[in-house]
Amino acid sequence: MSSHLLVLFCFALLIFDKIPLSASFDWYTTCSNKYRCGAIEADFPFVGDGRPEGCGHPGLKLNCEKNNATIYIKGVKYQVLEVDQNAQIFKIARTDYMNGICVPQYGNTSLDPELFEYAPASGDITLLYGCSPEKNSYIGGFNCSASGKGFILPGNSTSGGAELVCRSRVIARVPDPVRNYGELGNVSVISKALAEGFPVKYKVDFEACGECKNSNGVCGYDGILNQTTCYCQNELSLDLRTCPPTPGSGDDGGDLEVPDAKTGT
Fold first, then answer.
1. Which residues contact 74 (CB under 8 A, 6 or more apart)?
2. Radius of gyration, alpha carbons of the chain
3. Strand 148-154 relative to strand 168-175: parallel, antiparallel, unpaired?
4. Cα–Cα distance for residue pair 220/198, rounded to 1 Å
5. DSSP state, 34?
C-alpha cells in the first residue's frame, strides 16, 4: 500500500470511528450535566463524576472522595477547595499536607505550564526533613516522629541551605503573606497555610466556548485535535465552534417580510 493510500485509509478510520460515537451518544445532554461533589460544582472545562472525557480537558479530571473534590496534577494529589469559573481559577491544597507537615506522600509541587499557571498571591517554600541537629547551626525548625528534625526555607531552595545536612526536601506552595511577613519559623502558621491551599489559573480556550454557548451549544473538548469543541442539540457542530441557527430563529436566511403597500406595515 502506498504512503498516500495509507494516509487516506487512516483518515477514513478516524472518520468512521467517530460516526458511531456521535450518532449513538448524546454529548449535548451529557455535557450539559455539572460535576457536583460536596460544595464544589463545575462544568466545562472540568470532567469527572458523570462528565466523561469529551466534556472537558483530560488534565482537569475531578474525583469525588468522601464528599471532597480531588485532582491529580503531575502525580501530586490535591483537594479542590474552591472553583471560580468566571475568573478561570480554582483553589487547591495538597492532600498530604491537609493534616500537618510531617508526612509528605508526594514530591515537589509542580504544574503543567501548558495547562496551568500560578495565580497571584502565592509562592514557594522548601521543607527539609531528616536533618542532623548536631551538624546544623540553624535555630528553630520542627520535629517529626518519623523523620526527625526539619526546617522551612523561603522560596524554591533546591540548592539553598546547602549547609544543612538533611535526607530530603519538598517544594510546596503557600499564600504570599506567609512568606512576606517572616512566618516561616512558625510551624502552626505554615501548617495552616498549606491546608488553606493556593489559587491556580487554568488555561483553556474560553473564547471558543463563549461562541459555542452563544449559538445555544454546549462546550466540550476534542481529544484528537486538542481544542475546545461545540456540541449541538441533535447534531455535532461542523465548524467545532458554533451550532447552526435553528429554524425560525431569525438567522436561518428565511424570506423577509414585505411591508404592506397600503398600511406600510
1. 110, 111, 112
2. 26
3. unpaired
4. 27
5. P
Q: pLDDT tens across 45-67, in order?
A: 999 988 999 999 999 999 999 99
CB atoms near residue 86 (< 10 Å): 7
Are 142 and 133 within 8 A, CB to CB? no
Q: State how far the Cα of 149 lies from the Cα of 142, in Å rounded to an integer.
A: 6
Backbone angles phi, psi at 176, to 5 degrees: -60, -40
Helices (H) and strands (E) in the chain, counts: 5, 15
The 10 Å Cβ neighbour count of residue 41 is 13
Question: What does the angle CA 116 – CA 122 – CA 127 come to, to the nearest 5 degrees?
Answer: 100
Whether pLDDT at 8 is above 60: no
Which candidate, 80, 97, 126, 83, places its Cα nearest to that of 194? 97
- 472522595: which residue's cell? 65
> Region 65-87: what's the mean pLDDT?
96
- The grid coordinates listed for 24 are 449513538
Specify the pTM. 0.79
Percent of all residues in the chain with a pLDDT value above 90, rounded to a whole number: 51
Which residue(s) pair with 41 in the sheet? 36
253 DSSP 8-state letter: -
**Which three cell numbers mark 63?**
474525583
